[in-house]
């Protein structure tokens, strides 16, 4: 049963009991309506408390029901809230921990609200590409005032309950804050309320007071429009609030409902919900159940104080975990330490960190030149030079010094984790932890599972990833793991297109218009073109049968390594980051086409986007087929959190589903017929799904 019904001192207590977060799915909604009916017909009951069991009052509507018949099956949340408002006996919402979305909307329907301090209160629907659809845009402004409500609704950001107690120009959200036991106090409050004359107050009957509502709404519209280019929901939030202000509560409610039904069907909302569930699904590994024991991680060590090692270190310091940082030379250690401090100081300057916290974090850091100091560490992460020989030395040494049961992690981005594990006598303790640069900022962490990596090691690193606020995605061992293996095919297409007729600025513009944060050439200039060059040189030896365009090598032969050398695919003015198209490079590309005998043609922006994105999709499909990723949403999470894929498109695999795999397969087959078509070996799953109308997700 999703709802419990009990009575206490003549008060009916309706407890939402639908773990994990008391989502307001159909059975919960039914239970509330039944409880209200029962309480109202019981003469021994004088008032009603609605509360939540476990870790939330309610996390809102059950998102998994969206776009299914259950979402609109009566009683809908609207009906439930109407029943609450209609109740002849006063209804008190007793809120603790979390009241979000529909949960808060339900509480706004109650006659009174009492909250425990520290509860997170939000209407976060906008983050899912929708708007509060059960009266939130109408009732919240009447409860806490137009400006505060609009801010909460448009950002979706949580506010602590104590900040909403009798605040704002209106009567406030909470009638009381609990000092002790929430339920005891809610029951006492309800008993007192029952003594009062009905009708009991309803938020819907309050007025929205604002000296210049029209002007404020227009200002908000302009600001929100400028900030939410690719997302329709934020503007609709403003529109729905405005409808209530101008046309009154009932008409506002109808308009809100229309907007909700429209938004829930949009690809943007689908993508955002996919990302919400994808992030949570990524932490679940099919054969590592949540009951798997974990190892205790109290002390961490990082080997290498370069950019990567420093960034990795900061993650742990931020989470309050002590770190020992090892280097081979004192200068390197000093440099690394200074960079970490400088990064924190920059945060202090921006007001994002206090000076005390900076010192507290630095106090957790110990530096050393001695391997003996790694003896105590529970988790050791190496971030040394990306060469197997160097890794071999490190892991052999680690095998000697690390305590039994310590987790030994490599931050390799391309090397074989199984080979690295084999340098030790404890391959079960070895795992890849591929952080992305800058490691203290980027959300993505690829967890590379070796063939011998123990399950408890995996469970532990997934847990620690959560602690350091990373989105961890498990990848099997293969060249480049999930992210870089796919990006290689994307870059390969980008270079081919230069050879065939495009120029860097056109390619970048087209894919940035699609929504990527940065096109491949601007990105390469930022990262350093020499990095790709080094990888390609290795590839030419390892995979001589695979064809690559050499146009990027020509660029590097000119010493144009990107922003750091002031010239790359683009020109850069000293001290500036603006990418300026370079005549020299464009001429070099045209000359290269001639040299390789390719007749240049006009390439459309549509072709550019298709070839880049479908290259990701096709390789992603192969990665799934090989079991390197366990689900399509894992691949999407890698691209959303580590590679700047537009969030509102949901990642490459969801995008392919949205376009239709039939269309994707047709395009791939078409490109396979063009010059350089050998790069397009259609993945069998793409071909199969295209044939049977299936999808990846
Ligand atoms: C809405 O209310 C629309 C209405 O306006 C109108 C309706 C007509 N539904 O995050 P966690 C699952 S829209 C279904 O790890 P935490 C989640 O998938 C809704 N499932 O826990 C996960 O499942 P699993 C507006 C949900 O403690 C498990 O709960 N509300 C929902 O770190 C634990 O989640 C929101 O947008 C849901 N609403 O954080 C709130 N919520 O264990 C979205 C969670 O199988 N939720 N799950 O992986 C959150 O922000 C966080 O989950 C919350 C708890 C803060 C509640």
Automatic annotation (TrEMBL):
CDD domains: crotonase-like (cd06558). One of its GO terms (molecular function) is enoyl-CoA hydratase activity. Signal peptide: none annotated. Pathway: Lipid metabolism; fatty acid beta-oxidation. It is found in: Peroxisome. GO terms for biological process: fatty acid metabolic process; lipid catabolic process. The keyword Ribonucleoprotein does not apply. Gene3D superfamilies: 1.10.1040.50, 2-enoyl-CoA Hydratase, Chain A, domain 1 (3.90.226.10), NAD(P)-binding Rossmann-like Domain (3.40.50.720). Keywords: Fatty acid metabolism, Isomerase, Lipid degradation, Lipid metabolism, Lyase, Multifunctional enzyme, NAD, Oxidoreductase, Peroxisome. It catalyses: a (3S)-3-hydroxyacyl-CoA + NAD(+) = a 3-oxoacyl-CoA + NADH + H(+). It holds the Pfam family ECH_1. Residues 480-572, 608-681 form the 3-hydroxyacyl-CoA dehydrogenase C-terminal domain. Residues 299-475 form the 3-hydroxyacyl-CoA dehydrogenase NAD binding domain. This is 3-hydroxyacyl-CoA dehydrogenase NAD-binding domain-containing protein. It comes from Paraburkholderia tagetis.
């Amino acid at each position: 049963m999703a709802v419990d019904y009990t009575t206490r001192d003549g008060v009916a207590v309706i407890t939402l009991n639908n773990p994990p977060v008391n989502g307001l799915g159909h059975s919960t909604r039914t239970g509330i309506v039944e409880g209200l009916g029962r309480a109202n017909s019981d003469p021994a009951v004088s008032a009603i408390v609605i509360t939540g069991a476990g870790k939330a009052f309610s996390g809102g509507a059950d998102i998994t029901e969206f776009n299914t018949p259950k979402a609109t099956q009566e009683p809908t949340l609207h009906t439930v809230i109407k029943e609450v408002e209609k109740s002849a006996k006063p209804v008190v919402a007793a809120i603790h921990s979390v009241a979000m979305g529909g949960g808060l909307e339900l509480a706004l329907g109650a006659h009174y609200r009492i909250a425990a301090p520290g509860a997170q209160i939000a209407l976060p629907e906008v983050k899912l590409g929708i708007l509060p659809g059960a009266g939130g845009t109408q009732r919240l402004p009447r409860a806490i005032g137009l400006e505060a409500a609009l801010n909460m609704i448009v950002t979706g950001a949580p506010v602590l309950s104590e900040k909403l107690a009798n605040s704002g120009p209106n009567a406030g959200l909470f009638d009381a804050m609990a000092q002790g036991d929430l339920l005891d106090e809610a029951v006492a409050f309800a008993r007192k309320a029952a003594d009062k004359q009905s009708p009991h107050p309803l938020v819907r009957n309050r007025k929205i007071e604002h000296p210049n509502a029209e002007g404020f709404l227009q200002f908000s519209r302009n600001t929100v429009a400028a900030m939410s280019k690719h997302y329709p929901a934020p503007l609709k939030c403003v529109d729905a609030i405005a409808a209530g202000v101008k046309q009154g509560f009932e008409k506002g409610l109808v308009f809100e409902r229309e907007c909700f039904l429209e938004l829930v069907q949009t690809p943007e909302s689908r993508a955002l919900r996919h990302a919400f569930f994808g992030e949570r699904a990524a932490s679940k590994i099919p054969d590592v159940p949540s009951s798997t024991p974990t190892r205790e991680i109290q002390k961490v060590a990082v080997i290498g104080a370069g950019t990567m090692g420093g960034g990795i270190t900061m993650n742990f310091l931020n989470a309050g975990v002590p770190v020992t940082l090892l280097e081979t030379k004192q200068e390197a250690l000093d440099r690394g330490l200074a960079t970490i401090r400088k990064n924190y100081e920059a945060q202090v300057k921006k007001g994002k960190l206090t000076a005390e916290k900076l010192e507290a974090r630095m106090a957790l850091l110990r530096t050393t030149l001695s391997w003996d100091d790694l003896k105590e560490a529970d988790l050791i992460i190496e971030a040394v030079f990306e060469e197997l020989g160097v890794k071999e030395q490190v892991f052999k040494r680690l095998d000697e010094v690390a305590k039994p049961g310590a987790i030994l992690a490599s931050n390799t981005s391309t090397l074989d984790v199984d080979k690295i594990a084999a340098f030790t006598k404890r391959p079960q303790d070895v795992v890849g932890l591929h952080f992305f640069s800058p490691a203290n900022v980027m959300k993505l962490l690829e967890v590379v599972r070796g063939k011998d990596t123990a399950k408890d090691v995996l469970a532990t690193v997934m847990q620690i990833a959560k602690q350091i606020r990373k989105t961890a995605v498990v990848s099997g061992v293969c060249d480049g793991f999930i992210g870089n293996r796919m990006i290689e095919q994307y870059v390969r297409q980008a270079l081919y297109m230069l050879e065939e007729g495009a120029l860097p600025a056109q390619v970048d513009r087209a894919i940035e218009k699609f929504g990527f944060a940065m096109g491949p050439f601007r990105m390469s200039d930022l990262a350093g073109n020499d990095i790709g060059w080094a990888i390609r040189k290795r590839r030419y030896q390892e995979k001589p049968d695979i064809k690559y365009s050499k146009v990027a090598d020509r660029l590097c032969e000119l010493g144009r390594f990107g922003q750091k050398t002031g010239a790359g695919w683009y020109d850069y003015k000293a001290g500036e980051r603006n990418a300026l198209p370079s005549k020299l490079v464009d001429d070099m590309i045209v000359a290269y086409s001639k040299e390789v005998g390719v007749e240049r043609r006009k390439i459309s922006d549509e072709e550019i986007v298709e070839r880049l994105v479908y290259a990701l999709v096709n390789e992603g499909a192969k990665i799934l087929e090989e079991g390197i990723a366990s689900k399509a949403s894992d691949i999407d999470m890698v691209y959303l959190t580590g590679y700047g894929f537009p969030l509102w498109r949901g990642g490459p695999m969801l995008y392919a589903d949205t376009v239709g795999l039939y269309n994707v397969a047709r395009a791939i087959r078409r490109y396979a017929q063009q010059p350089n078509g050998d790069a397009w070996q259609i993945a069998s799953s793409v071909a199969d799904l295209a044939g049977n109308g299936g999808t990846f997700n």
